[in-house]
Protein backbone atom coordinates (compact mmCIF):
# COMPACT_ATOMS: atom_id res chain seq x y z
CA UNK A 1 0.00 0.00 0.00
CA UNK A 2 1.15 3.46 -0.80
CA UNK A 3 0.87 6.21 1.71
CA UNK A 4 0.44 9.73 0.56
CA UNK A 5 2.39 12.24 2.61
CA UNK A 6 0.88 15.54 1.54
CA UNK A 7 -0.31 18.19 3.86
CA UNK A 8 -2.71 20.91 3.02
CA UNK A 9 -2.02 24.48 4.12
CA UNK A 10 0.20 27.42 3.32
CA UNK A 11 3.92 27.32 2.96
CA UNK A 12 6.11 29.70 4.90
CA UNK A 13 6.81 31.75 1.75
CA UNK A 14 3.09 32.19 1.09
CA UNK A 15 2.47 33.37 4.65
CA UNK A 16 5.36 35.86 4.48
CA UNK A 17 4.09 37.26 1.17
CA UNK A 18 0.54 37.59 2.56
CA UNK A 19 1.79 39.40 5.67
CA UNK A 20 3.90 41.75 3.51
CA UNK A 21 0.90 42.61 1.32
CA UNK A 22 -1.24 43.32 4.40
CA UNK A 23 1.54 45.45 5.92
CA UNK A 24 1.83 47.59 2.78
CA UNK A 25 -1.94 48.01 2.65
CA UNK A 26 -2.13 49.07 6.29
CA UNK A 27 0.77 51.51 5.87
CA UNK A 28 -0.99 53.17 2.93
CA UNK A 29 -4.23 53.38 4.92
CA UNK A 30 -2.50 54.97 7.91
CA UNK A 31 -0.76 57.52 5.67
CA UNK A 32 -4.06 58.42 4.02
CA UNK A 33 -5.85 58.88 7.34
CA UNK A 34 -2.97 61.02 8.61
CA UNK A 35 -3.09 63.24 5.50
CA UNK A 36 -6.86 63.66 5.72
CA UNK A 37 -6.62 64.59 9.40
CA UNK A 38 -3.90 67.17 8.72
CA UNK A 39 -5.84 68.67 5.79
CA UNK A 40 -9.02 68.89 7.86
CA UNK A 41 -7.24 70.86 10.59
CA UNK A 42 -5.68 73.18 7.99
CA UNK A 43 -9.02 73.80 6.27
CA UNK A 44 -10.63 74.52 9.64
CA UNK A 45 -7.97 77.18 10.27
CA UNK A 46 -8.57 78.68 6.82
CA UNK A 47 -12.31 78.91 7.52
CA UNK A 48 -11.71 80.67 10.84
CA UNK A 49 -9.19 83.03 9.17
CA UNK A 50 -11.83 83.88 6.55
CA UNK A 51 -14.23 84.79 9.35
CA UNK A 52 -11.57 87.08 10.84
CA UNK A 53 -11.14 88.79 7.45
CA UNK A 54 -14.90 89.18 7.08
CA UNK A 55 -15.12 90.65 10.59
CA UNK A 56 -12.38 93.18 9.82
CA UNK A 57 -14.11 94.15 6.56
CA UNK A 58 -17.47 94.51 8.31
CA UNK A 59 -15.92 96.75 10.98
CA UNK A 60 -14.45 98.92 8.24
CA UNK A 61 -17.71 99.09 6.26
CA UNK A 62 -19.71 99.91 9.39
CA UNK A 63 -17.35 102.78 10.17
CA UNK A 64 -16.25 101.16 13.42
CA UNK A 65 -12.65 100.75 12.29
CA UNK A 66 -12.34 103.70 9.91
CA UNK A 67 -8.83 104.94 9.62
CA UNK A 68 -7.43 107.41 7.12
CA UNK A 69 -4.17 105.46 6.95
CA UNK A 70 -3.61 103.44 3.79
CA UNK A 71 -2.40 100.47 5.84
CA UNK A 72 -3.62 99.34 9.26
CA UNK A 73 -3.37 96.13 11.21
CA UNK A 74 -4.90 94.49 14.22
CA UNK A 75 -5.45 91.26 16.08
CA UNK A 76 -8.51 89.19 16.86
CA UNK A 77 -8.87 86.04 18.89
CA UNK A 78 -11.23 83.54 17.36
CA UNK A 79 -11.51 79.79 17.97
CA UNK A 80 -8.80 80.00 20.60
CA UNK A 81 -6.24 81.36 18.12
CA UNK A 82 -4.85 84.87 17.97
CA UNK A 83 -5.07 86.05 14.36
CA UNK A 84 -3.20 89.02 12.88
CA UNK A 85 -4.89 90.93 10.07
CA UNK A 86 -3.61 93.69 7.84
CA UNK A 87 -5.88 96.03 5.88
CA UNK A 88 -4.55 97.95 2.86
CA UNK A 89 -6.51 100.66 1.06
CA UNK A 90 -5.57 100.90 -2.61
CA UNK A 91 -6.65 103.63 -5.00
CA UNK A 92 -8.08 102.44 -8.31
CA UNK A 93 -8.22 104.04 -11.75
CA UNK A 94 -11.71 105.21 -10.91
CA UNK A 95 -11.44 107.95 -8.27
CA UNK A 96 -14.88 107.00 -6.93
CA UNK A 97 -13.84 103.42 -6.09
CA UNK A 98 -11.36 102.23 -3.51
CA UNK A 99 -9.98 98.70 -3.20
CA UNK A 100 -9.79 97.24 0.32
CA UNK A 101 -7.50 94.23 0.83
CA UNK A 102 -7.38 92.26 4.08
CA UNK A 103 -4.83 89.51 4.79
CA UNK A 104 -5.03 87.23 7.82
CA UNK A 105 -2.04 85.38 9.31
CA UNK A 106 -1.38 83.44 12.49
CA UNK A 107 1.93 85.22 13.07
CA UNK A 108 2.66 88.89 12.73
CA UNK A 109 5.67 88.19 10.50
CA UNK A 110 5.56 89.42 6.90
CA UNK A 111 6.91 86.08 5.64
CA UNK A 112 4.38 83.96 7.52
CA UNK A 113 1.66 82.08 5.70
CA UNK A 114 -1.47 83.97 4.67
CA UNK A 115 -4.48 81.92 5.73
CA UNK A 116 -7.12 84.17 4.15
CA UNK A 117 -7.31 87.15 1.81
CA UNK A 118 -10.43 89.23 1.31
CA UNK A 119 -10.71 91.94 -1.35
CA UNK A 120 -13.60 94.34 -1.77
CA UNK A 121 -14.29 97.40 -3.86
CA UNK A 122 -16.01 100.21 -2.02
CA UNK A 123 -17.16 103.58 -3.27
CA UNK A 124 -15.04 106.45 -2.01
CA UNK A 125 -18.19 108.47 -1.30
CA UNK A 126 -18.91 105.80 1.32
CA UNK A 127 -15.72 106.82 3.08
CA UNK A 128 -16.36 110.56 2.66
CA UNK A 129 -19.99 110.48 3.78
CA UNK A 130 -19.40 108.40 6.90
CA UNK A 131 -16.77 110.61 8.50
Give a nutshell description of this structure.
This protein is α+β, with helices and mostly antiparallel strands.
Shape: rod-shaped
Task: Give the uncertain stretches in residue-range form.
Answer: none
Number of helical regions: 2
Question: For the terminal residues, how far apart are their CA atoms?
Answer: 112 Å
Oligomerization status of the protein chains = single chain
- Provide the spatial order of strands within the biggest beta sheet: 1-2-3-4
CATH level 1 class label = Alpha Beta
What's the CATH topology label? Pantoate--beta-alanine Ligase, Chain: A,domain 2
Jot down its keywords.
131 residues; alpha+beta; Pantoate--beta-alanine Ligase, Chain: A,domain 2; 4 strands; 43% helix; rod-shaped
Your description of this structure?
By secondary structure, this protein is an alpha+beta fold. The protein has a single domain, classed as GSPII I/J protein-like (Pantoate--beta-alanine Ligase, Chain: A,domain 2, 2-Layer Sandwich), CATH 3.30.1300. Helices cover 43% and strands 29% of the residues. It contains 2 helices and 4 strands, in the order H-E-E-E-E-H. It has helices at residues 12-61, 124-129; strands spanning 71-78, 81-91, 97-105, 114-123. The chain has a 4-stranded antiparallel sheet with strand order 1-2-3-4. Strand 2 (81-91) and strand 3 form a beta hairpin. It is rod-shaped, with a radius of gyration of 29 Å. It starts with 11 loop residues before the first helix and ends with a helix. The model has no long low-confidence stretch (mean pLDDT 87).
Amino acid sequence: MKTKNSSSGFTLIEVIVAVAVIAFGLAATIKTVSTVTRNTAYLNEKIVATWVAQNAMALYELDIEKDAAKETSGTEELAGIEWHWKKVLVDTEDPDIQRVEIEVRRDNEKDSQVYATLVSLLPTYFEKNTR
